[in-house]
């Protein structure tokens, strides 16, 4: 890994009781709704999915709590001006996209790659302005070469024309409360009552701007998100899981795993992880690791399976479970029999745990192969977390937490990073931008296409909620 060993301190503090949250209440605490990649096509969990009446009652209660509790700011509330929202018009004029520089730490991905910009400019006459950014994985010269205009970092606020779409990936800095007058395309993380959601929306209200949130762009035919990062979340999660496994063979389970930095490209990632796994296999007497992927048929799951294959794990050693294999209900002793477990399910209703302390401690040391657990799904603070062994997320700076068991069981290394695709920013951006392209083209030919009209309708609904909240 492109890492430093400097600040690694990877032993987790003792886990807080599950279901409790730390600090101020955040929407995320009851369901992982402020997740980097929450899927909107997934509705809030439905109590009707529960088998038993008692379960239904519990889940219904949780949902009532989720929907009734909203974050109440300790700070002064912004005032809302009750503006008339902009309505969409159909036009065949090519739009102007202004790709802003991201401001979030470690974010090297982008919503518009040079390749996609090239198609938009060359084939469809879009105008594109790209802000300089020291973090973006693509060099500014690549954008300039294909005819994008180049602008200074952050200059959209003062220089972008009123009709330009401001395109970004992650939310804007929380410290800026100025009114927003443009139409923004980004993941704003404010439609599900996340922290400060109403303040974020009030910026649009005060500036008469519009938010077309990337998380809520759905294909009207399939209900699926038009573009998502899930595949590379599973891919990156499995890569880190195998690297932590290699680290334990090479350095020992007690040596802290170092900080993680995004890779320049997929080749660099594969070369690195493959090399480390080969070294580790040599050191441990030729035993290759087995990898179990839960939710293997989904976006994240298929990414995890593909990564394991690329590293050279044989198909027999990649155990793929999905909804059929878990029908009987957990916990599953089978998980403990594999070196690396990658959880990629989409949790839509309460389910029995996949794994718990009792199952792990009940097996003999010989039966216990499991050393690394990667929780791509990251339902860590959900009261129905199917892996109730921890309740916190890890980060690129401090990627691994350790769960201890009764001796002689070795500890379990756990990764619960909620922005995994950032590990491979180039390929993750390429897949995302390519999937987004057909919808972007509709902004020229059919601005009222359902994908955009629905997103704007949702924005208006959320804005009305924010007004009520701040009234
Ligand atoms: N950590 C990150 O950086 C990151 C990034 C993106 C997505 N995610 C999260 O990953 C999760 C999966 O996302 P996705 O896009 O792959 O979803 P998806 O719907 O494409 O796939 C989910 C899979 O889980 C399976 N599944 C559901 N319940 C199951 C059960 N009880 N047992 C076994 N399999 C089950 C489904 O059948 C499906 O195949 C979501 O929670 C998402 O928010 C995390």
Account of the protein in words:
This protein is α/β, with parallel strands linked by helices and 471 residues long. It has 2 domains: 177 residues, 3-Layer(aba) Sandwich (Rossmann fold); 194 residues, Rossmann fold. Helix content is 32%, strand content 10%. It has 11 helices and 12 strands. It has a 6-stranded parallel β-sheet. A 6-stranded mixed β-sheet has the order 8-7-9-10-12-11, with helices on one face. Strand 1, helix 2 and strand 2 form a beta-alpha-beta unit. Helix 6 crosses helix 8. The radius of gyration is 23 Å and the shape is globular.
Topology readout:
Elements: H1 53-68, E1 96-99, H2 114-124, E2 127-131, H3 140-145, E3 149-151, H4 156-159, E4 165-167, E5 183-186, H5 197-207, E6 210-213, H6 230-251, H7 266-283, E7 291-294, H8 299-311, E8 318-321, E9 340-343, H9 357-362, E10 372-375, E11 401-403, E12 412-415, H10 425-445, H11 450-470
Parallel strand pairs: 1-2, 1-4, 2-3, 4-5, 5-6, 7-8, 7-9, 9-10, 10-12
Antiparallel strand pairs: 11-12
Helix pairs in contact: 2-10, 5-11, 6-7, 6-8
The structure holds nicotinamide-adenine-dinucleotide.
Nicotinamide-adenine-dinucleotide (NAD) binds at residues 35-39, 228-230, 233, 294-295, 297-301, 321-323, 326, 344-346, 351, 376-378, 417-421.
Principal-axis shape: globular
Mean pLDDT reading: 84
Distance between the termini: 50 Å
**What's the architecture of the largest domain in CATH terms?**
3-Layer(aba) Sandwich
> According to CATH, what is the topology of the largest domain?
Rossmann fold
User: Stretches where pLDDT falls below 50 for ≥5 residues?
Assistant: 1-90
Main sheet record: 6 strands, parallel
The beta-strand count equals 12
Helix and strand element order: HEHEHEHEEHEHHEHEEHEEEHH
Radius of gyration: 23 Å
Number of domains: 2
Helix content: 25-40%
Strand content: 5-15%
Structural class, from helix and strand content? alpha/beta
CATH superfamily of the largest domain: NAD(P)-binding Rossmann-like Domain
């Amino acid at each position: 890994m492109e890492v430093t060993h400097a600040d690694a301190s990877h032993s987790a503090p003792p886990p807080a009781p599950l279901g409790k949250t730390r600090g101020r209440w955040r929407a995320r605490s009851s369901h992982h709704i402020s997740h980097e990649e929450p899927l909107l096509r997934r509705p809030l969990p439905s109590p009707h999915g529960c088998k038993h009446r008692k379960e239904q009652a519990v889940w219904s209660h949780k949902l009532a709590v989720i929907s009734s509790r909203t974050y109440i700011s300790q700070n002064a509330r912004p005032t809302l001006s009750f503006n008339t929202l902009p309505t969409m018009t159909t036009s065949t004029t090519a739009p102007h996209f202004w790709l802003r520089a991201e401001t979030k730490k470690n974010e090297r991905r982008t919503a518009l790659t040079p390749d996609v910009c090239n198609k938009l400019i060359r084939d469809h006459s879009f105008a594109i302005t790209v802000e300089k950014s020291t973090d973006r994985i693509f060099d500014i010269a690549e954008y300039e070469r294909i005819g994008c205009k180049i602008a200074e970092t952050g200059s959209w606020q003062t220089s972008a024309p009123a009709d330009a779409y401001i395109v970004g990936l992650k939310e804007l800095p929380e410290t800026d409360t100025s009114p927003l007058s443009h139409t923004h395309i980004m993941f704003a993380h404010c439609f599900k009552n996340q922290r400060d959601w109403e303040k974020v929306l009030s910026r649009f209200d005060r500036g008469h701007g519009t938010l077309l949130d990337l998380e809520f762009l759905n294909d009207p035919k399939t209900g699926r998100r038009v573009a998502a990062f899930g595949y590379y979340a599973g891919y990156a999660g499995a890569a880190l899981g195998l690297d932590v496994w290699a680290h334990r063979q090479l350095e020992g389970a007690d040596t802290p795993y170092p900080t993680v930095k995004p890779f320049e490209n997929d080749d660099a990632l594969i070369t690195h992880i493959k090399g480390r796994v080969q070294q580790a296999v040599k050191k441990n007497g030729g035993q290759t690791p087995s990898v179990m992927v839960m939710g293997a048929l989904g976006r994240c799951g298929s990414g995890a399976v593909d990564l394991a294959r690329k590293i050279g794990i044989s198909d027999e050693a990649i155990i793929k479970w999905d909804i059929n294999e878990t029908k009987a209900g957990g916990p599953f002793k089978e998980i403990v029999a594999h070196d690396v477990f990658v959880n990629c399910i989409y949790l839509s209703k309460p389910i029995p745990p996949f794994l718990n302390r009792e199952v792990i401690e009940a097996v003999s040391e010989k039966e216990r192969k499991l050393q690394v657990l990667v929780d791509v799904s990251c339902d860590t603070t959900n009261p129905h977390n199917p892996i109730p062994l921890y309740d916190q997320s890890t980060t690129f700076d401090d990627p691994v937490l350790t769960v201890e068991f009764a001796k002689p069981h070795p500890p379990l290394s756990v990764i619960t990073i909620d922005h995994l695709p950032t590990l491979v920013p180039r390929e993750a951006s390429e897949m995302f931008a390519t999937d987004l392209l057909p919808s972007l083209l509709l902004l020229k030919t059919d601005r009222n296409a359902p994908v955009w009209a629905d997103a704007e309708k949702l924005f208006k609904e959320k804005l009305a909620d924010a007004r009520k909240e701040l009234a």
